[in-house]
């Protein structure tokens, strides 16, 4: 409700369309009846259903009136926008096999979507650059294009990379990220970055609202700063981050439109093979997860001081997994930034770790033997 005005004897509600409904004092039978008869008020209540895939279909079975309200495309649009401000469900993972990008579910019934519910066949050679806000970004080096795919809408957007951004497709590494502004479900942005370690690094931003690429953003970074094809990005605190080496992170600031390099924690585990990813720290800033064997270190960067790293904690992951899963080292498969979970392959299956509760969840029907699986986090309204 935009506003609620009360008097000693009457209550007046103003809907978003400006229509006024008057009822008796809250709590009286007349007031309850008025609420049940006002479509705007019922819609506001239904808008607050959980953003799980089963919520709207199950609620639509209550009565014909609810089904009519919930089936309205305008309501479903408001529902998606409302829940974009929170944490969207982690519907599953996308993986690639023989040029086909296929969905694998992660939720339990009744929210579980069928395996292969979303799929995309790209005829061109492609590289997956990332997933975010329900969108996927692919790079086509042969045609020097990127593709933005919206699985829910079934829409593809092919964008030509600006001339001069890539000098040699076979040699110049390109990475990127796709994102939507907060509360927006119509428009998107694409951020591309390239650096071969010899020339200045470049970035360029595309806006679907204007249909244009912005100017090139150039930065002379430290030597040997080289972007890697397909290294997943993390959006945290208004910046996009890519891990570009075992010692460096590339940062693109969305507000200042600038590039910078951040060194990873100098005191993290050394002497053993390890796997790392940028992550969201508590409070929404940038963090860093480093895993060696079954030991996980959680780091956070102190941005309000000198940019130093602080060790937030250490966890022995094998003590949280079921017996038998520690017969072989963990393999990190991916990180879901909005739900703050990381995926690991073990000899007994794939597990999803919530990095706040440290509670592992086994994804029983996902059999993964390779790399390159990407979390799909979005509000789905079937």
Automatic annotation (TrEMBL):
<dbReference type="InterPro" id="IPR001810">
    <property type="entry name" value="F-box_dom"/>
</dbReference>
<protein>
    <recommendedName>
        <fullName>F-box domain-containing protein</fullName>
    </recommendedName>
</protein>
<dbReference type="Pfam" id="PF23635">
    <property type="entry name" value="Beta-prop_AT5G49610-like"/>
</dbReference>
<feature type="domain" description="F-box">
    <location>
        <begin position="39"/>
        <end position="79"/>
    </location>
</feature>
<dbReference type="Pfam" id="PF12937">
    <property type="entry name" value="F-box-like"/>
</dbReference>
<dbReference type="InterPro" id="IPR056594">
    <property type="entry name" value="AT5G49610-like_b-prop"/>
</dbReference>
<dbReference type="InterPro" id="IPR036047">
    <property type="entry name" value="F-box-like_dom_sf"/>
</dbReference>
């Amino acid at each position: 409700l935009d506003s609620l005005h009360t008097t000693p004897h009457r209550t007046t509600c103003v809907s978003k369309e400006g229509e006024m409904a008057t009822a008796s004092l809250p709590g009286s039978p007349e007031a309850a009846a008025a609420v049940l008869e006002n479509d705007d008020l019922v819609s506001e209540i239904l808008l607050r259903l959980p953003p799980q895939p089963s919520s709207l279909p199950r609620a639509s079975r209550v009565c014909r009136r609810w089904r009519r309200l919930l089936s309205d495309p305008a309501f479903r649009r408001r529902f998606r926008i409302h829940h974009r401000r929170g944490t969207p469900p982690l519907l599953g993972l996308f993986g690639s096999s023989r040029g086909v990008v296929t969905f694998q579910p992660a939720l339990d019934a009744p929210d579980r979507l069928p395996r292969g519910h979303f799929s995309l066949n790209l005829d061109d050679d492609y590289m997956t650059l990332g997933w975010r806000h329900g969108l996927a970004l692919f790079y086509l080096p042969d045609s020097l294009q990127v593709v933005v795919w919206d699985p829910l809408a079934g829409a593809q957007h092919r964008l030509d990379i600006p001339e001069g951004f890539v000098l040699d497709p076979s040699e110049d590494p390109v990475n990127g990220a796709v994102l939507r502004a907060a509360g927006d479900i119509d428009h998107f942005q694409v951020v591309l970055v390239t650096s071969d370690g010899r020339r200045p690094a470049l970035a360029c931003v595309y806006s679907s609202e204007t249909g244009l690429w912005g100017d090139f953003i150039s930065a002379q970074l430290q030597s040997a700063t080289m972007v890697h094809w397909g290294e997943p990005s993390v959006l945290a605190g208004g910046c996009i981050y890519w891990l570009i080496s075992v010692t460096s992170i590339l940062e693109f600031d969305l507000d200042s439109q600038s590039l910078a390099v951040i060194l990873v924690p100098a005191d993290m585990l050394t002497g053993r093979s390890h796997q790392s990813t940028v992550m969201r720290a508590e409070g929404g800033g940038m963090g860093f997860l480093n895993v060696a064997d079954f030991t996980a270190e959680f780091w956070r960067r102190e941005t309000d001081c000198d940019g130093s790293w602080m060790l937030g904690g250490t966890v022995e992951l094998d003590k949280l997994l079921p017996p038998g899963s520690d017969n072989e080292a963990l393999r990190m498969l991916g990180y879901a930034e909005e739900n703050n979970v990381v995926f690991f392959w073990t000899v007994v299956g794939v597990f999803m770790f919530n990095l706040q509760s440290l509670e592992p969840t086994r994804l029983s029907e996902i059999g993964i033997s390779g790399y390159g699986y990407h979390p799909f986090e979005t509000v789905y309204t079937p």
